[in-house]
Fold each of these.
Amino acid sequence: MRQVPEVALPIVLDRTAGGSLPNQIAESIRHLTASGVLRAGEPVPSSRALARHLGVSRGTVIVAYDQLLAEGWLVAIAGSATSINPQLPRAWAAPPAVSARGASRPQEVPRIDLRPGRPLQDEVAGPSWRAAWRVAAAAPVGVSVPLLGWPGLRAAVVEHLRRLRGFNCEPDRVAVTAGGREGLSLLLHASGAKDVGVEDPGFPSLRRVLHRRNAIIRSLPTDDQGLVTTKLPETEPPEAVIVTPAHQYPFGGTLHIDRRLALLEWARRHGVLVIEDDYDSELRYASEPLPALASLDADQVALLGTFSKTLTPALATGFVVLPRHLVAAVEAVRGDLGQPVSLVTQRAVAEYLASGGLARHTQRMRRVYRRRRNQVVAALAGLTGVRVSPMDGGLHAVVQFDRDERSVIDALRMQGLAVASLGEYWASEPPGSQRGFVFGFGGVSDADLAEGLATIRATLGGRPSTIGRPASPHRAPGAAPDQPS
Amino acid sequence: MRQVPEVALPIVLDRTAGGSLPNQIAESIRHLTASGVLRAGEPVPSSRALARHLGVSRGTVIVAYDQLLAEGWLVAIAGSATSINPQLPRAWAAPPAVSARGASRPQEVPRIDLRPGRPLQDEVAGPSWRAAWRVAAAAPVGVSVPLLGWPGLRAAVVEHLRRLRGFNCEPDRVAVTAGGREGLSLLLHASGAKDVGVEDPGFPSLRRVLHRRNAIIRSLPTDDQGLVTTKLPETEPPEAVIVTPAHQYPFGGTLHIDRRLALLEWARRHGVLVIEDDYDSELRYASEPLPALASLDADQVALLGTFSKTLTPALATGFVVLPRHLVAAVEAVRGDLGQPVSLVTQRAVAEYLASGGLARHTQRMRRVYRRRRNQVVAALAGLTGVRVSPMDGGLHAVVQFDRDERSVIDALRMQGLAVASLGEYWASEPPGSQRGFVFGFGGVSDADLAEGLATIRATLGGRPSTIGRPASPHRAPGAAPDQPS
């Protein structure tokens, strides 16, 4: 009987009520069994333990158990604990049923999911990964952690940014987040910004965070080089802007240095917080990255980073490099709302970064993505009236055409293929020429990618053609037809 | 040279500018070195790799490197990679300095921290814990996870509630959260509640979440049995109420069954969401727990649970059992804002629960806490004019006295002891009799607890006394002097 866990049965004895204590105990156990809390076959607490738990004599419990044994609710088998009768009706023994809209409700899972944003994750859980978690799990947990996150991870992020982004920043400006969206929420909370400019087109997922926070969303126009800084509002500017200078989302244009300086000058003049979404920057494989905006201005720019793309969204871990004036406010938010990333996860990510695991993984993935990008260009070349713009160093491509966007996407879905609508990247009504879809080439197997590309090709127009505007695989990277930059 | 990581130097070549390409490369490397991005002693990319990265001929890079070698910026050592000269001034070689308000800014750490809310964590990182993380780290990460969380963890939470709380619920009502406060945020988001009733006194940390969300906070009166349901507002009721029926915080009163039914009847009548904060319930060691409110009404009550107290706050993991009508709304919030708990953490917690690790740990901790509770009662017995109310099964005690609250707490702080002000538990002005402090006896070592108790005793009044209202260690649990329940 030693191994039966300590008692935590919700039995309430009412010493002023009519029924005897043994009867009350027996009735409670009958009720708990019938309602499924105690299951057929499960041992009940020892009479000694239950007596202590209820504050009654052991004899009282023994009387109750004897009654239940006589009634067949309990069975006593020589050499093992007294248990709920395993022969009780199955209805009582079954665990709670998962209803039709159950725990793993199918959310219309496509056969091949080419929606953008997912990296290839097959090789993440390798030896370096397992070693990092082993180290993290062996460390003591009862340590005091600063509000911005575990210093070891923040130092590793600094080193990561230095090596992969050429960006030198102080660790006391780095805050650990649960990823890009949580980082954006944190910045909005800390800055109090309620009126936010976003690139149009831009990330729908970040706009959804703004919607959830009831922010006013202002569209900022972009062209093939990214944000058009001459059109930034000079009167009543927003409190914050979210920009993707490394490669504008989804078309991939890089913000030129003169626009970068103009944006920062404008932000300083109006006191606007610039939120630099540095997504995928570490994955560039086709050209030289420009320095992060945040490296040019430590007072006005917050850099939003995540390991969702370089590693896996399953990690739910990222970081923000804060402008100095927001450090105290972010600490206050974390103090009130808590740090969502477990210390074990923070240690494991730090260990994985410091061991070079992430650098090696990123290097492998760059090779895979470079190959896949070429595969995409080759597979979709020469389709009449179709422009294919693979991102310069990213994980997705944009396909544009002059047909009805919805009917093409629906046709793909009928064939088991999920892609994202290009129209949904606009906050405002997209220009007429902006019909098409966006698809990711990171998150699927080689075979699924090949099949997906064949399906897209067949759906968009059959035979290869040498007329029109072919997106040749031999063009320089970054110079796909609609991307003069 | 094979082991040098793939190049990610932020070098931008301008083919239209005056300087030759080798000169531009050399100047960029000088700049990166001087600014600390490249460090003394660090290898530079191979000429082949950098040439490929920049899209120039290998000869161009070799010319640049030769120039830098001649200038002494680089050194070439036979048999190893060309590197930044390790003799460069130390100023360039140093990693970014942590400023005075550094990464681990000391937040006035007390010598003995008896502020409530922290469990004893010394034994958490044991063999079961490490095994759970090992299993979790070996699992693939590229799997699709439902918006409410990994089904394995949600099933383990159901089993945990069944065994430790006698509460049977369906797994499709369980959502994984990053802890109690994140769970509350999630419920507020999903329900849209902006006008929330809280017990007075009550958890300051949950009130801070409401403040951060700009909610209207209404005080609900309590007495020694918890919420006074006869005083619930019948006109203009709040949209949600947060209650602690298992043991009211901080005094520990248990909400009687008639009040529970009255609360639920009131909530149903007015459509009020009841948020049941079930903190510490699994840790009860001194009396029978009443069933969770949520087990009485699956349509009106959300149960807020966390592993911060049963295990460690470092886990940043908890759960909510949702009323059925909120399931879809919570899924929508998670879809927009993301799941903050990493899949590895979710798997590890599930594994730890399923392996019985948490049940065994809880059992050990119950013994420790029961012993410590008796130690607290004994150590502080017989102080004139002082009432000590250790929680019935919790991790903290309330100390009340007729002296100035602030001066006592300050006197303790001068002796290196941190406790929480009882006055801060009130949203409104506390009644005059409610002066004192709250201290936790979970989170410190045996020696620190003994020293802390001696310090409290000495500060509150020196010699033991047999007059006044002694809190005898021989009284029944839960019947401390000011707690008639």
Amino acid sequence: MTDSVLDHALLGLDRLQSDIAALVAAESVGADPARADGMEAARLLLENRLKGAGYSGITRLTPADGSGQPAIYAEQLDAPGAPTLLIYGHYDVQPPEPLDAWDSPAFALTERDGRLYGRGASDDKGPMLIALAALEAFLDVEGRLPVNVKLLLEGEEETGSPSLPGILDSHAELLAADAVLSADGGRWRADLVSLTTGSRGSAGFDISLTTAGKDLHSGRYGGAVPNALHAMARLLSSLHDAEGRIVVAGFLDGVALPTPEEAGAMAAIPFDEAAFFAPLGTVPYGEPGFSTLDRLWMRPTVEVNGMWGGHTGAGSKTVIAHQAHAKLTMRLVPGQDPKRAMEAVQAHLRAMTPAGAQLRIHSVRGLSAAYAVPDAHPLLAAASAALEATTGQHPVRVRMGATLPLTGQIHDALGIDTVMFSFSTSDEDYHAPNEFLRKSALPDGLAAWIDLLRRVGKQKTRDYGPYRTGRK
Amino acid sequence: MTDSVLDHALLGLDRLQSDIAALVAAESVGADPARADGMEAARLLLENRLKGAGYSGITRLTPADGSGQPAIYAEQLDAPGAPTLLIYGHYDVQPPEPLDAWDSPAFALTERDGRLYGRGASDDKGPMLIALAALEAFLDVEGRLPVNVKLLLEGEEETGSPSLPGILDSHAELLAADAVLSADGGRWRADLVSLTTGSRGSAGFDISLTTAGKDLHSGRYGGAVPNALHAMARLLSSLHDAEGRIVVAGFLDGVALPTPEEAGAMAAIPFDEAAFFAPLGTVPYGEPGFSTLDRLWMRPTVEVNGMWGGHTGAGSKTVIAHQAHAKLTMRLVPGQDPKRAMEAVQAHLRAMTPAGAQLRIHSVRGLSAAYAVPDAHPLLAAASAALEATTGQHPVRVRMGATLPLTGQIHDALGIDTVMFSFSTSDEDYHAPNEFLRKSALPDGLAAWIDLLRRVGKQKTRDYGPYRTGRK
């Protein structure tokens, strides 16, 4: 059985690839103030495209105070009675540094061995453009979409979505929908058809320690004054015990152990530990008494993402550093309140700050709770059926260790659930040099999106009623 | 009683200051390959000056293999029967970074409030040029020097003097002398006339930890893989206990506690702890059971001088770093063998490397033993008398916490002792931004050097015989 919409979409595969290349070329690194122009370039590319496709209501959304990187909104609401989906993607990307670790330029999409390399190719520019291309195929061939669609393309996902709660709050009526379908989130593995039904939350902040008014000569003063690097090493090493357990009082409050049902479902998931670790060049390491999947999906973390101080350049400089710095993030699981969990870590750090050092906690970012979509949600059922229809395999339901701030925030703000339907894959080195997207994600993704949109078009708004909880 | 040589020297004070400015302008940062031109510029300035003053035998000294930054040698040997002094200084300086922490340009000598600011002004370009100016005043006024002089101006002091043993070994006959008089080393305090009779040794190396083949996403993998920053924090914090004691097995082997005589002499030294710490913006911190002076002069250290890994730039990047790095130095005291002490630290680090991490130890540098000049040494006696004559105060004998690699190395290589006679002061922020030299050091230093050279001119080579031990 051929599908004229899919046929049309597949004829446009080359155009889709060049569209991804054009969007990757916009250096939309939200964390880097020097690349503000790249953020604006990405927005203009997307807005022009949505205009060309015939969307209405195209606008930029910010919190009421106008702060932050605006999200792009557009809508196509011509399927009366059918559900309304809020389709999510993000146009911002991770910093590409270190640039010299890339085998091809970070912002020039480069095809090698069936892979498309470039910053944002996988997270989330490629998957977002697959979704847009699937929607446009309906508009091109049928002149309308099978479901009502609202698009929300965010610009702060990689910096913890600080403005998203404000955007959702200020534009709750505009964004009202039956469910969210996310083009972000990532498939777990290339070798397994799966649906990701939950994600960890996150919180983060920076710390600085000061031990003196200036750097001091390590000969002249060494042994008689505190060293900020010693203090930082001691402070950071106090977060875990020698075996990798988090030893922060109160941090694990509310975290439940997996139920026998969850434990059974997880044990049934095909998982080759050796194959998982080999490409990472590392070994299993983590909280004793838990499996790798437990550690990734059901257990929270406190991680140091950056740490620096003193002389970090070439050669020797015999200083006692008077300041040291670190960046921390926590990954949170269901049961943890992000604010309380973060405050537990901060209280631990204050209590453990070594004598002679002053602690400053700053740059708090990205407070997001963990999230799980209800097992029987109609959009999840449709997504599962669409994947089975287009791949021939029944998708396994899995969780992800990473964070989609949107999921928890949208549930709080709009009272609806989110199904993740991205065609990136978790091994694609997003957040690292040489990020890539498998080229096969383009036709696979188009087929699945088109099938899913048709299925949801046959559902009714009322099917979603039991899952709409209203705003918090 | 006027001294025509001193009068002449003091008339040249402005020229001395402009000579210091010219040498500071040469960016002779030996640790920075990008500033190799600055090293050569400094050498050319000094060589031209020595030629103009009439020295003979001007040459560049390297180890037999020609490696490293050459030292400059010159001699003036026209005082038969008088002792021969090997006068030491160094023309290389510490890196000036961070440049934005300087109140005036690092390489432009700038006078403010009686101080001369600039990289190398205090360590060691200013004090070295004071010595050269004192010698030139004798040559100008009397046509000869009162003692036989050999000059050795090193270019690797700030990088641990890696070539110095080879230079001493290859040119032992050329450098043969009765004692070394060093224009490096620093006065302890501006408010106390003192002679520094001992220095700590040093050793240093870098370490790198690797935990994976690449940086990994902290959400996607967090909790199930090792984090190089956690491993580094744990490893570095294992070097000391929570109270600041070094807990490295074997490191303290051979270290003697101060004798009652030494303890008594140290207790008699006027030392205002509050006044010592206040300008540093820090508090006393170190090994329990020892005073600040004990900690600085009689106890060894293991210090981290730099530590880095992961995302250290602006904003957030949620990576698990796969590598972390640190730079370490040890300060050593009499009784410690530098190689054995360093190897004890390395063995500790290997033993304590956390599971999941690979340790690499590299960039070993600057193995120097601690040193103390014998109490009754004739050059020390002359130096003490010169300071008393020119200041009216009897100099207190003190030690220094920092390292002069020359002292131990020259004792091993040439069998002679070193007396430090620098007119820098230890609070002058060498090895930090805003290094300065007190302008009063110029006339004070000229007076003391001229007085000392006259006194040694009245001594005989045979007075030094008991202290010449021969080459090791």
Amino acid sequence: MSEQKLRAKELDAADVLAARRAAFVLDGDGGANGGGTVYLDGNSLGALPAAVPGRIEDVVRRQWGELRIRSWTEEGWWTAPERIGDRIAPLVGAAAGQVVVGDSTSVNVFKAVVGAVRLARLTAGAAGAARDEIVVDATTFPTDGYIAASAARMTGCTLRPVPPSGIPDALGERTAAVLLNHVDYRTGRLHDLPALTAAVHAAGAYAVWDLCHSAGALPVGLDEHGVDLAVGCTYKYLNGGPGAPAYLYVRAELQDRFDSPLPGWNSHAEPFGMRPEYAPAPGALRGRVGTPDILSMLALEAALDVWDGDVTIEEVRAKSLALTDFFLECVEAYVPGGRVECLTPRPHGERGSQIALRCPDAGDVMQRLIGRGVVGDFRHPDVLRFGFTPLYVGFADTERAARVLAEVLAETGA
Amino acid sequence: MSEQKLRAKELDAADVLAARRAAFVLDGDGGANGGGTVYLDGNSLGALPAAVPGRIEDVVRRQWGELRIRSWTEEGWWTAPERIGDRIAPLVGAAAGQVVVGDSTSVNVFKAVVGAVRLARLTAGAAGAARDEIVVDATTFPTDGYIAASAARMTGCTLRPVPPSGIPDALGERTAAVLLNHVDYRTGRLHDLPALTAAVHAAGAYAVWDLCHSAGALPVGLDEHGVDLAVGCTYKYLNGGPGAPAYLYVRAELQDRFDSPLPGWNSHAEPFGMRPEYAPAPGALRGRVGTPDILSMLALEAALDVWDGDVTIEEVRAKSLALTDFFLECVEAYVPGGRVECLTPRPHGERGSQIALRCPDAGDVMQRLIGRGVVGDFRHPDVLRFGFTPLYVGFADTERAARVLAEVLAETGA
């Protein structure tokens, strides 16, 4: 048995989260005998939590099929967006009453960025400063940039894409809002949320964070660091299912002034009053829009059960770093030098929960990996992404992934 | 047996759609023996189609649980919004390639109204006319008005609420877009889509129709009548499930100029190109935004199976009118004159697929009706709504609903 295989065995034996794997439906065996799938694509679509199928069957057959509209009140459908928001809140370091679930990440980016610009203008109003610039991470997942451009166009702002490292210097008295990614979707780089948020605030602007690639994998600390608004998806490290609804965080002190560009009837102070005049609800509900998609939303609610009990996000983070460290160690041991280039930073403070490796034939390599049961994904044009979900990925999985990668790389290219 | 009970028996026996009832999960017996529930709230939440539970179980357990991300391509998740749009299209009189499913109705109203204003300005551009007014049905379901107000604010327009009958006179060279409801959610009044659309066009403006209360219950004829944009929900007469995704129709000739205010990555010409610059996809895909909520969307897809085979929307309309005629006939026979006032117009050309009855104690009356197995709904402050879904409501159901209503009214108020 190789040194890495032995290490994997020891690490798995000492893993305090190992038992959580049973909360998911996985065909692999945790790598113990090298069988089944090693699923390293939880940063795209989280694996199925075991609690989901039964819950959804009940929602479809009994709640919809038998109770029908009564479920809006009797089964808590109507309050699901804020109830499930409160389940996500502790995972991103937010007190209750600040997170609401619904719509896609893109739609929530629109609400948050327009909302942030409007907040900046309210604040700037008396001082007379013209806040007319939205700064966006130039390396962002594209939808954030596209939606920020629309928000800029519709609020009379200019959109300014800036690489994250250059953002502090780009801020000024014209900056209204800054849209940032906590973890870069491509490289897995973790950005410094506390420092960047402080810099945005020092410039008198509002910070919007996209947590898609961090929530559920590492501590975020929204309240602690004074983040203004945040959005995230729930189908990656939160395992909510394909296209599960996203969420919006609005800091409690800002909620009374949060002025949504999508003031649908679900955000009305009295939604069943059917009044022609809009009056926004207080609190997180103000971020709601239309009727929530109950099936997807209640699948997410069931999926969040995997966090119940004594699991903490700090334990998850510790294991995530141990997994990615170990993966890099195995890649270095198995893969000939120079065959791949690691795009993910080595320092723990700059690393999310994925490893991105660049190689010229990445598309072909990933196809072969998947064919051998190691599932990561490919990002155009030359990136292999491997996501590590600490609740269900183990160290033997990790060793096997690196070993199979080395085998594939030995057969191809170079 | 009363005259009405005999008539119900005859009408049920002659009903060409009677067999469709078997495609739904219903606890009633169609009224034959007066057992179970008479469900007259399909205009709020359609009953569960029998094909849905099995399909969703497969989507959850196999597609998500086993195939995971492979399902985005292998199970057609990625193309679901336009594929399911093409299933809805014939029901609203649209050729393929013009309807895309996703987001809530409210979000689609925003896309459509902003899109219509931008189209109007493109057209008006050369002539120099300032199109700066959005006209909205003053009796609209509130969310349409709230969202239209936001669209007006964000495009520099004025919002002008006008009662539907006054709309032709309110149009002029400043009108950019007109947002109308095909059927009024409260009264069940059917508006004249062909004539109103023609009036909007004569004024050089763009017509946006909300089909929430008509799609699946009566012919819409979007293509035939030259409607520009339309939106609708899928959880009423389309039976897609609670909060099922809504849809957006953009007329084929306008698609190249449709300029969405929510240009998420799913509407990009090359979504996996991950390009920083936005380039819109051609066709209906341009109406997409973020990742589609697959569970809710595929439940809707299965729900649309009830339309397969030889059922036509014209047959559905004929039965809908026969049901509402018969309900009014029974109400007149059973309920003492003056106890309720019918808000729904008598002429077939002005009636949707619901009957709205006003009585001062409507809230209490509806509670008692539901307690006796006749499920309609209550709209503040004094409206009883009874929705007739021709695919699963029969004439004996209808007679029983009127009879129980008369019993309840005899016990209460007045």
